[in-house]
Amino acid sequence: MTRPRLSAVAVVGAVVGFAGLMHVVRRRKLARHPDFFRAKVVLITGASSGIGRALAIALAERGAYLVLAARRMERLTRVADECRFISPDSEVLVVQTDVSEQAQLEALVGQALDRFGHIDILINNAGIMTGGHYEAYNIAALREQIEVNLLAAMILTRLVLPHMLRRRAGHIVNVSSVQGRYALPFSVPYGVSKYGLIGLGDGLRRELKGSGVTVTTLCPGATASEMVAPAVEGFRRMPAQLFEPAEIAEMSLKAIRQGRAELYGDWMLLPVVWISAIFPGALDWAYKLSWPDEFVEMQRKRSVMPEEEGV
Amino acid sequence: MPQPRRGLNLLLSATGAAFGAWIASRLIRQRRLDSDPLYFADKVVLITGASKGIGEALAYALAARGACLVLAARSEDKLQAVAAECRSRGAPDVLVVPTDISEEPALQNLTHRALEHFAHVDILINNAGYQRGGALDQVGSEAVYQQITVNLIGGMLLTQLLLPDMLARGSGHIVNISSIIGRYAFPYATSYGASKFGMVGFNESLRRELYGTGINVTLINPTFTETDIMSDIKEVVRKSILRIDSVETVAQRTLEAIQLNEVEITLDPIMQVSGWLSAIAPRLSDLAFRVLTPPGVAEAAAGQHE
Ligand SMILES: NC(=O)c1ccc[n+]([C@@H]2O[C@H](COP(=O)([O-])OP(=O)(O)OC[C@H]3O[C@@H](n4cnc5c(N)ncnc54)[C@H](OP(=O)(O)O)[C@@H]3O)[C@@H](O)[C@H]2O)c1
Ligand SMILES: NC(=O)c1ccc[n+]([C@@H]2O[C@H](COP(=O)([O-])OP(=O)(O)OC[C@H]3O[C@@H](n4cnc5c(N)ncnc54)[C@H](OP(=O)(O)O)[C@@H]3O)[C@@H](O)[C@H]2O)c1
Question: Which residues of B are catalytic?
């Protein structure tokens, strides 16, 4: 073999070897703590449906103690009942919370601490998705989008963090999105909120290095929840994957156990994320390949419609 | 042994070609800039945060190129002084509108006054912003809220107010001054980081949405710039390999980016690479902060305004 070819083989070998080593290390980390979540106190916002509900159920299966928060109380109690049914000895606290209200966030943390004494894992999952032409965007929707998705996570983290730091243990999980790295048109404020969450996670991870508190940012791909319900069929047609909330929950728990910095549900979108980070303008059309027209249209029409109806 | 020499030749010629291409692209860029020296003449440019720092320098650079200016910030006396300087440097018309961009009515007033006076706005520069450092567990909730309201929501709302008019005319340029921290978040500045990441997202999604409407969108990521914002960390940064830009440099590069309709520029290439890493290999990128910034920079930033 010639020398350039040899060195190419060596480079490829080194990369594959490194990836393999990382894989083995991760597997061993997972194997070492089969009961990682048992009796851990996990606070989940937006637990009444979709990914939040799936996380609650997956955690109940592993014997975690749960604090579930969302606005719709009947839904929330139903999820709590499911959790108790799955795991009769796991404790579940339900707290009706509108995360856009700071006082309610304080009450939520207060109740969780009263009941369990501490919080091991905080999952900032509550989210809404608004849409529309930016120039016609409803200003209240714009503000709510930032308040619910971004500010609530920042404030809640800020409230929980001192307790975690005191115990030198804890895990903060933010549910961002692939749209937090590759923003789509016709939902500008949603993209803003999800980019913000990535920034929050990045800064916090660097800030909390060595403090015992870990930070994970989750970027699920398209997930069949209420949020994207009208466009689900469209997603099934696309080359990118459509996940069930339970699949995302499994992946997320694994990432939390491994203490990963970031998790992308859909690895097929990673090249899009990477290329557009380096060449920001290069893939401005790529969204048409990974997100169905139905979805973009659904978003586009959103804030236009109320205006046409004169609301 | 002919093999290694062939490899070396290949490497050398590839490097040569890349260097040649780079030189050529710089020349073309300069030609494009020179071909339209009057690009900014009589354009109406609205700058927020024009009372000092980068905003002030932008105002002077634009004034020297004959642009009409709308200057907004909270300090009216400072704005008036900047306006006088702009007029003496060649701005045909300067309008001062004292504005607190965290207040919606103030933004409406700013839009109204600008459109009333100039009939349209060609270029909007969302520049106003401040940084409040501190560990997240120690800053108050109110401070977190305020950081997002001023740095992020202010520019979003102002853009929304000016957009209909730009769309009706089928032309306009929205320029967002974010920060490298919007691509690579620093510790002890998490709410500032979230606000700047948000601004990057704003820029990205707006650009994709406005494609084909005639409205351009440009993102500027200054790195360390000689202004009040970094007064506390300046001494520490000076000891690192990172550069500190003058406001004039940032203004100059911003105007070039606008004229060439560049999508995004980052001032310090070293930090820019850290930003790429942050998106591709987050854990590895954490090292960049430790290697590039001198010890104590985060702590100095944390001490800010305390
Ligand atoms: N589905 C996707 O394709 C996808 C992809 C990437 C990221 N995500 C993110 O994943 C997270 C979960 O979304 P999902 O897909 O599971 O959607 P979902 O089924 O609509 O769930 C959203 C959850 O957030 C809660 N919520 C909304 N506003 C709230 C408020 N003001 N206060 C408290 N809770 C609130 C909702 O509960 P109540 O209405 O009962 O309050 C609900 O439990 C979101 O952050 C979303 O952005 C989703
Ligand atoms: N300096 C750096 O190293 C650096 C690096 C990256 C990015 N940046 C960004 O560049 C932009 C300009 O910063 P700078 O360095 O020039 O800082 P600066 O010298 O402190 O100037 C900030 C400007 O924003 C205005 N401002 C602040 N709060 C405002 C409010 N609520 N309403 C209206 N105006 C407000 C200030 O005017 P009033 O006080 O009169 O209102 C001032 O004109 C900021 O967005 C900053 O984040 C700076």
Answer: 192
